[in-house]
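Dear H.,

Thanks for agreeing to be a second pair of eyes. The structure we're designing against is below in token form, covering all 378 positions.
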């Protein structure tokens, strides 16, 4: 890499790179091999989302208020009637110790009846904290409307809230809680892997090259052309000659391949973090960065009245000093039409560049058509 400067001192930037101050770059000389199970999923092996509505009781005055959350009163009234407490009017129900909540959970693949799963409990009303509460029996349903699990148990809150007459402190989110092993599976999802004539592998990141490498690796392992790429996401493997599909999946998921991906630069403008992929390339380009710095300093002066002045008052006279400093716009030229990420990183290590400056430079180079990569700003 050869640098040619047009003016000195050089107060510039190389070209698209990564900078410190909340800036992270990973440079790889070779791509790593990964297991198929780490970049893809198998047909039928998936989680299912469950949801339910319930009540958390036993709160120490941090529950829903009756005026703001009438549905909590209605839920308490219905629960008491089901439990044989007789007719209880809503006017007689105080909800300071009760909170209406949504309960969510993920049903693992092939979960068996009687196994337990974790649940997340989230407040629906204006409760200030769920700390110390207990979730009452809550059916958890799937997208098909069937109940697959039932949740109950004491909730665990990571955050806290404390309030006084003149100040309050809130740490974390005290209105969201977890229950470890808080739900018991009551219904199993019927799915027999051995009923499949073929196994489909779905890549997490669609890519034609990666899908072809998966198919080639599987064919090399099994000895026949049993795997074929259907699209950039899906690879289908025939079960011909195999009676045990779970055993075949166990073999396939541990095969290693080298995944491919598009060249990409990802920028998090909020934190100033920039991540540049290993395949990013930049054409020959000249980059310049100049700046204007304005410094404003307030130095108010206090003037006192004369000693014998009647009715005199102390006054503050404002005084403002403004300084303007303009830096030179110097150019740096990066020679060579195929500059790799390693070249870019090496070139920037010798020049200090702020995160905001680097983001602006990357956007400008992309607009000029010299950055051969997707630029994604999150």
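And this is the sequence the design step returned. I haven't edited it by hand at all.
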């Amino acid at each position: 890499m050869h640098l040619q400067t047009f003016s000195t001192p050089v107060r510039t930037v190389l070209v698209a790179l990564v900078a410190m101050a909340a800036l992270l770059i990973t440079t790889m000389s070779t791509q790593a091999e990964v297991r198929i199970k780490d970049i893809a999923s198998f047909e039928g092996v998936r989680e299912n989302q469950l949801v339910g509505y319930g009540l958390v009781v036993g709160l120490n005055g941090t529950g829903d208020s009756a005026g703001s959350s009438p549905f909590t009163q209605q839920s308490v009234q219905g629960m008491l009637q089901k439990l044989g407490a007789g007719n209880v009017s809503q006017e007689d129900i105080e909800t300071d110790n009760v909170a209406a909540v949504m309960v969510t959970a993920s049903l693992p693949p092939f979960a068996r009846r009687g196994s337990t799963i974790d649940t997340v409990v989230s407040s629906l009303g204006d409760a200030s904290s769920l700390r110390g509460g207990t979730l009452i029996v809550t059916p958890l349903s799937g997208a098909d409307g069937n109940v697959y699990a039932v949740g109950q148990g004491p909730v665990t809150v990571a955050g806290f809230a404390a309030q006084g007459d003149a100040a309050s402190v809130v740490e974390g989110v005290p209105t969201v809680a977890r229950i470890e092993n808080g739900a018991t599976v009551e219904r199993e999802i019927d799915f027999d892997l051995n009923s499949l004539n073929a196994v489909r592998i779905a890549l997490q990141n669609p890519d034609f090259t990666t899908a072809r490498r998966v198919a080639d690796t599987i064919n090399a392992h099994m000895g026949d052309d049993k795997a074929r790429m259907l699209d950039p996401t899906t690879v289908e493997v025939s079960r011909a000659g195999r009676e045990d599909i779970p055993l075949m999946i166990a073999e396939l998921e541990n095969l290693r391949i080298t995944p491919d991906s598009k060249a990409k630069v990802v920028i998090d403008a909020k934190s100033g973090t920039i991540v540049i992929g290993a395949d990013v390339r930049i054409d020959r380009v000249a980059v310049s960065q100049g700046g204007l710095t304005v410094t404003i300093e307030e130095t108010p002066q206090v003037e006192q009245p004369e000693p014998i002045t009647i009715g005199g008052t102390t006054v503050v006279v404002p005084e403002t000093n403004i300084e303007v400093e303009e830096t030179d716009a110097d150019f740096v030229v990066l020679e060579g039409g195929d500059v790799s990420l390693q070249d870019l990183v090496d070139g920037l290590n010798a020049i200090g560049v702020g995160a905001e400056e680097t983001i602006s430079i990357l956007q400008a180079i992309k607009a000029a058509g010299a950055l051969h990569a997707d630029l994604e700003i999150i």
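Two observations from my side: Residues 48-185 form one domain. The mean pLDDT is 78.

Warmly,
E.
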